[in-house]
Amino acid sequence: ARLLSSAAGVDDRLVEGALRPQMLAEFVGQQVVREQLSLVLDAAKARGSVPDHILLSGPPGLGKTTLAMIVAHELNQPLRVTSGPAIQHAGDLAAVLSSLTEGEVLFVDEIHRVARPAEEMLYVAMEDFRVDVVVGKGPGATAIPLDLPPFTLVGATTRAGMLPGPLRDRFGFTGHLDFYAPEELEQVLRRSAELLGVELTPEAAVEISGRSRGTPRIANRLLRRVRDWAQVRGDGTLDLTAARAALEVYAVDARGLDRLDRSVLEALCRRFGGGPVGLSTLAVAVGEEPETVETVSEPFLVREGLLGRTPRGRIATPATWEHLGLAAPAGFAW
Ligand code: ADP
């Protein structure tokens, strides 16, 4: 069921690691972000200083973690990885910050989920490279300032709009990652096939990329499923027959919509008559968190014209009804 989900499972994470580009030059697509980032990094290297803090935003699976690793790699610095949900208390953050070495890159995934009490500490650390460690409790508590070595924070978020203003302001550079064009995904697939040591025909690459939801993580995952099919049922070559057969086995639809995408659209049309319906109501209907629906499913559906967002809620578009093979109710206004 998670085949198409852009959240990675454990096994997939291992293979994913092997397929990650290590240098900016190997990173496919996202030309604007790549160029801006390379300027930031080159300038810092030329000055012999640490670069400004970097914020990366965009839907899951588009390369935020990969870019954070590339930043560390390009700067020849170690990378420390943590995430917003892991930082629930100021102490969690203080522990990470106080152990950073000079120039180190600190990656905070899902930075919009850093808990409030730690936020203030993060501001000071980012701006002044200082952390105030509180010793003791109650009226006797004292804050001991601790200087930190200069470091670079790379924050990733699926919801740039959710970041508090003061946090957003402390990033010197923000890169927004967008869905990949089919040709770019084909390039990702060719590169991955080569790394996996399998033969991928151009037609198969087109077929897989068209169903990958504009997302490299999904493209790589589908590639592995086609490889399974080719090895077990075919002659080992990843050709159009293997691609079509494998995608059929895994019920990947022609536009690459996954289970969650389809349940969102089904609920919207079948239960709510095409809307408008509020995000939380829709999320409850498909048994997911509103945040998951909003960050994982919606951006792609909206881009594909399969979902409309209005002030009154989410609505079906003519394309939604068509995609589900349903007739829009009489008088349904778009
Ligand atoms: P995010 O952090 O945005 O969820 P990741 O950086 O984990 O996404 O990317 C998921 C996978 O997709 C990586 O393992 C990598 O192999 C692949 N990938 C992402 N972006 C690119 C790219 N631009 N070029 C090649 N592979 C990529």
UniProtKB/TrEMBL annotation:
Subunit annotation: Homohexamer. Forms an RuvA(8)-RuvB(12)-Holliday junction (HJ) complex. HJ DNA is sandwiched between 2 RuvA tetramers; dsDNA enters through RuvA and exits via RuvB. An RuvB hexamer assembles on each DNA strand where it exits the tetramer. Each RuvB hexamer is contacted by two RuvA subunits (via domain III) on 2 adjacent RuvB subunits; this complex drives branch migration. In the full resolvosome a probable DNA-RuvA(4)-RuvB(12)-RuvC(2) complex forms which resolves the HJ.
Gene symbol of the encoding locus: ruvB
Source domain of life: Bacteria
GO molecular function: DNA helicase activity; hydrolase activity
Keyword Ubl conjugation: no
Function: The RuvA-RuvB-RuvC complex processes Holliday junction (HJ) DNA during genetic recombination and DNA repair, while the RuvA-RuvB complex plays an important role in the rescue of blocked DNA replication forks via replication fork reversal (RFR). RuvA specifically binds to HJ cruciform DNA, conferring on it an open structure. The RuvB hexamer acts as an ATP-dependent pump, pulling dsDNA into and through the RuvAB complex. RuvB forms 2 homohexamers on either side of HJ DNA bound by 1 or 2 RuvA tetramers; 4 subunits per hexamer contact DNA at a time.
Pfam family, one: AAA_lid_4
Domain notes: Has 3 domains, the large (RuvB-L) and small ATPase (RuvB-S) domains and the C-terminal head (RuvB-H) domain. The head domain binds DNA, while the ATPase domains jointly bind ATP, ADP or are empty depending on the state of the subunit in the translocation cycle. During a single DNA translocation step the structure of each domain remains the same, but their relative positions change.
Subcellular localization(s) per the UniProt record: Cytoplasm
Domain AAA+ ATPase: 50-183
Catalytic activity: ATP + H2O = ADP + phosphate + H(+)
E.C. designation(s): 3.6.4.-
Name the record gives this protein: Holliday junction branch migration complex subunit RuvB
Binding locations of DNA: R309, R314
Keyword Protease belongs to the record: no
Residue numbers spanned by region Small ATPAse domain (RuvB-S): 181-251
Residues engaged in binding Mg(2+): T65
Coiled-coil ranges (or none): none
Family: Belongs to the RuvB family.
Binding site for ATP: L19, R20, G61, K64, T65, T66, E127, D128, F129, R170, Y180, R217
Main localization of the protein described in the UniProt heading: cytoplasm
Sequence segments annotated as region (Head domain (RuvB-H)): 254-334
UniProt keyword terms in alphabetical order: ATP-binding, Cytoplasm, DNA damage, DNA recombination, DNA repair, DNA-binding, Helicase, Hydrolase, Nucleotide-binding
